[in-house]
Protein backbone atom coordinates (compact mmCIF):
# COMPACT_ATOMS: atom_id res chain seq x y z
CA UNK A 1 0.00 0.00 0.00
CA UNK A 2 3.06 2.23 0.18
CA UNK A 3 2.94 2.42 -3.63
CA UNK A 4 -0.49 4.07 -3.79
CA UNK A 5 0.69 7.73 -3.94
CA UNK A 6 3.11 6.84 -6.75
CA UNK A 7 0.40 4.95 -8.59
CA UNK A 8 -1.95 7.91 -8.25
CA UNK A 9 0.73 10.21 -9.68
CA UNK A 10 1.39 7.82 -12.58
CA UNK A 11 -2.35 7.47 -13.17
CA UNK A 12 -2.70 11.25 -13.46
CA UNK A 13 0.11 11.37 -16.04
CA UNK A 14 -1.41 8.48 -18.00
CA UNK A 15 -5.03 9.61 -17.84
CA UNK A 16 -5.16 13.38 -17.17
CA UNK A 17 -8.66 13.61 -18.64
CA UNK A 18 -10.14 11.36 -15.93
CA UNK A 19 -11.21 12.23 -12.43
CA UNK A 20 -8.40 11.00 -10.17
CA UNK A 21 -9.01 7.90 -8.07
CA UNK A 22 -8.66 8.31 -4.34
CA UNK A 23 -6.51 5.98 -2.28
CA UNK A 24 -9.56 3.97 -1.17
CA UNK A 25 -10.11 2.78 -4.74
CA UNK A 26 -6.66 1.19 -4.83
CA UNK A 27 -6.84 -0.12 -1.27
CA UNK A 28 -10.13 -1.83 -2.12
CA UNK A 29 -8.57 -3.55 -5.11
CA UNK A 30 -5.54 -4.65 -3.07
CA UNK A 31 -7.72 -6.09 -0.30
CA UNK A 32 -10.11 -8.01 -2.56
CA UNK A 33 -7.79 -8.97 -5.44
CA UNK A 34 -4.22 -8.72 -4.12
CA UNK A 35 -2.82 -10.89 -6.90
CA UNK A 36 -4.26 -8.59 -9.58
CA UNK A 37 -2.35 -5.48 -8.62
CA UNK A 38 1.10 -5.14 -10.17
CA UNK A 39 3.54 -2.25 -10.20
CA UNK A 40 6.56 -1.87 -12.48
CA UNK A 41 9.29 0.07 -10.70
CA UNK A 42 12.74 1.31 -11.60
CA UNK A 43 13.66 4.36 -9.56
CA UNK A 44 9.96 5.10 -9.22
CA UNK A 45 6.66 3.77 -10.46
CA UNK A 46 6.77 3.47 -14.23
CA UNK A 47 3.65 1.41 -14.74
CA UNK A 48 0.86 -0.50 -13.06
CA UNK A 49 -2.05 -2.79 -13.77
CA UNK A 50 -5.15 -3.15 -11.62
CA UNK A 51 -7.58 -6.02 -12.13
CA UNK A 52 -10.51 -7.73 -10.51
CA UNK A 53 -12.90 -10.60 -10.98
CA UNK A 54 -16.39 -9.73 -12.20
CA UNK A 55 -17.74 -13.24 -12.53
CA UNK A 56 -16.76 -16.77 -11.62
CA UNK A 57 -14.51 -17.15 -14.67
CA UNK A 58 -14.38 -13.53 -15.88
CA UNK A 59 -11.44 -11.25 -15.10
CA UNK A 60 -11.47 -7.54 -15.79
CA UNK A 61 -8.57 -5.12 -16.17
CA UNK A 62 -9.59 -1.84 -14.57
CA UNK A 63 -6.40 0.09 -15.30
CA UNK A 64 -3.20 -0.37 -17.22
CA UNK A 65 -0.93 2.64 -17.20
CA UNK A 66 2.66 3.28 -18.20
CA UNK A 67 4.46 6.56 -17.56
CA UNK A 68 4.38 8.56 -20.83
CA UNK A 69 8.19 8.80 -20.92
CA UNK A 70 8.58 5.01 -20.60
CA UNK A 71 6.14 3.75 -23.22
CA UNK A 72 7.12 1.44 -26.09
CA UNK A 73 9.56 -0.48 -23.88
CA UNK A 74 7.42 -3.58 -23.25
CA UNK A 75 6.29 -2.54 -19.77
CA UNK A 76 2.56 -2.76 -20.56
CA UNK A 77 2.99 -6.21 -22.06
CA UNK A 78 4.92 -7.44 -19.00
CA UNK A 79 2.26 -6.09 -16.66
CA UNK A 80 -0.57 -7.66 -18.67
CA UNK A 81 1.25 -11.00 -18.83
CA UNK A 82 1.58 -11.01 -15.04
CA UNK A 83 -2.07 -10.06 -14.56
CA UNK A 84 -3.34 -12.68 -17.01
CA UNK A 85 -1.21 -15.37 -15.37
CA UNK A 86 -2.63 -14.46 -11.95
CA UNK A 87 -6.17 -14.41 -13.32
CA UNK A 88 -5.78 -18.02 -14.45
CA UNK A 89 -3.64 -19.46 -11.64
CA UNK A 90 -5.02 -17.60 -8.63
CA UNK A 91 -8.63 -16.94 -9.59
CA UNK A 92 -9.53 -19.57 -12.20
CA UNK A 93 -10.41 -17.03 -14.87
CA UNK A 94 -10.99 -18.26 -18.40
CA UNK A 95 -11.28 -14.92 -20.12
CA UNK A 96 -10.54 -11.29 -19.46
CA UNK A 97 -12.11 -8.08 -20.67
CA UNK A 98 -11.27 -4.41 -20.53
CA UNK A 99 -12.24 -1.04 -21.95
CA UNK A 100 -9.97 1.00 -24.22
CA UNK A 101 -10.52 4.56 -25.40
CA UNK A 102 -11.37 4.64 -29.08
CA UNK A 103 -8.75 7.38 -29.48
CA UNK A 104 -5.96 5.30 -27.91
CA UNK A 105 -4.43 3.81 -31.04
CA UNK A 106 -1.34 2.56 -29.19
CA UNK A 107 -3.43 0.69 -26.61
CA UNK A 108 -5.72 -0.76 -29.27
CA UNK A 109 -2.68 -2.00 -31.20
CA UNK A 110 -1.10 -3.46 -28.06
CA UNK A 111 -4.20 -5.44 -27.18
CA UNK A 112 -5.21 -6.58 -30.67
CA UNK A 113 -1.84 -7.12 -32.32
CA UNK A 114 0.43 -8.16 -29.46
CA UNK A 115 -1.87 -9.66 -26.84
CA UNK A 116 -4.57 -11.25 -29.01
CA UNK A 117 -7.60 -9.35 -27.76
CA UNK A 118 -10.66 -8.80 -29.93
CA UNK A 119 -12.98 -5.83 -30.03
CA UNK A 120 -16.44 -6.99 -28.99
CA UNK A 121 -18.60 -3.85 -28.88
CA UNK A 122 -18.41 -0.10 -28.47
CA UNK A 123 -19.50 1.35 -25.13
CA UNK A 124 -20.91 4.80 -25.87
CA UNK A 125 -19.74 7.69 -23.68
CA UNK A 126 -17.98 5.30 -21.28
CA UNK A 127 -15.37 7.72 -19.94
CA UNK A 128 -15.71 10.84 -17.79
CA UNK A 129 -15.24 13.07 -20.85
CA UNK A 130 -17.95 11.07 -22.68
CA UNK A 131 -15.48 9.40 -25.02
CA UNK A 132 -16.53 6.01 -26.36
CA UNK A 133 -14.65 2.86 -25.44
CA UNK A 134 -14.05 -0.41 -27.17
CA UNK A 135 -14.88 -3.41 -25.00
CA UNK A 136 -12.16 -5.93 -25.71
CA UNK A 137 -11.72 -9.50 -24.52
CA UNK A 138 -9.43 -12.48 -24.74
CA UNK A 139 -9.61 -16.15 -23.83
CA UNK A 140 -6.66 -16.71 -21.49
CA UNK A 141 -6.74 -20.46 -20.85
From TrEMBL:
Return the Pfam families for the record.
Acetyltransf_1 (PF00583)
- Lineage of the organism: Eukaryota, Viridiplantae, Streptophyta, Embryophyta, Tracheophyta
Q: Which InterPro entries match?
A: Acyl_CoA_acyltransferase (IPR016181), Ard1-like (IPR045047), GNAT_dom (IPR000182)
Q: Which UniProt keywords apply?
A: Acyltransferase, Transferase
**A cellular component annotation (GO) from this entry:** NatA complex
Q: Which family does it belong to?
A: Belongs to the acetyltransferase family. ARD1 subfamily.
Q: Know the name of this protein?
A: N-acetyltransferase domain-containing protein
Q: Which source organism?
A: Papaver somniferum (Opium poppy)
GO MF assignments: protein N-terminal-serine acetyltransferase activity; protein-N-terminal-glutamate acetyltransferase activity
N-acetyltransferase domain span: 1-141
